[in-house]
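Input sequence (254 aa), recorded before submission:
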Amino acid sequence: MNMTEIERALRELRLSGIADTLSTRVMQAQAAQQPFLETLAAMLQDELDRRRSRLMERRFKRSGLAERLTLADFDWRFNPKLPRNACFELHTLKFVGEGANALIVGKPGTGKSHVAKAVAYQATLQGYDVRYVEADSEFARYGLASTAQQAEQLKGWIEPDLLVLDDLFLARRIADVSAELLQAIVHQRYKLRRAIVITSNRVVQDWGKYLADATMATTILDRLMHRCAMLEFEGKSYRLKEAAARIAMTPESS
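Predicted structure, token format:
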């Protein structure tokens, strides 16, 4: 086989990682007089790297995340009283392996969503199947779906290793169908020992009001809090800080 035929065979075998670097590896081996096994090992590593990269990208796209946020991006100095150690403990993903949960509650704009998204992104990098959901809007969309679509959506929220429900109760009261959906998600994931991260501006003592059912709230919280890290975020709003900075930078009209 000549090089063209070898490259064609590699693509037919779906070894695109080797095909993409073949010419470079051949020249490198010739220049350095590398042993055959060393050259082969390098080409196989190229293939493994390519496949891992593609798999990682597929996991990210499937997660529903729109950003690749990390805890390194977070300005911890702005609100020094935030539970930084607890956030980094979540970032280890130990709780995902244990099938535990995390509830991040606090004032708007204090960084709850950033931390939840950073944990979710880290989980995709570590090979976990993740779903990120903007809770209120997706729950409302669920209520408008057909029975078959609802079954498919529920399955998609039950099966992943980690589910992130962001900004739960943002609109305070949620519809009855959304409340029942939340109960089903928490109940089924509890039985399967699959992790949930929930962020909310609302303290858990008020969940009964937002669900319009104190018994349902107790049932949900009983399962959610059984194995759960509770993080409270207080302090100033990053969004208000950024808005004030933009206003300060806007030139006054003459």
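Checked by second reader. The beta strands are 101-106, 130-134, 162-168, 195-200, 228-233.
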